[in-house]
Amino acid sequence: MLDREIDCWVATSDPLIGAPHLVPLSFDWDGASVLLSTSAASPTGRALAARGGVRLGFGRTRDVVMVDGDIEVIEAADLPGDEGDRFAARTGFDPRSLRSRYLYFRVRPTRVQAWREENELAARDVMRGGVWLEG
To answer: Which residue(s) pair with 24 in the sheet?
Structure first.
């Protein structure tokens, strides 16, 4: 799913008042981390920059992958060109070309859950503590 989807749900909370916030963002998966980008001034951008972690949701409610991860904040000028090019090609969106300040956020998974139906809930963890579990 990480290889074929283009958008994911990004769950954050406001760093000042703790209000939850859920938005869809385009992403790129490189096999080890998820790369996101959004305006530095947006509620999501502020929350991602202020917090050390995030929860991402991929797919539909009956076939879902949930990823908890640690965040690395990257200025657009500091993102390696090949990563920016890959992100733009995959998502159809190139934040480097915008006049407003956009940040990139590299999410390194620490926990991954996947399930479709109730019978899969017991074995939904496929990564824990950043280590892939045997299936």
So the answer is: 9
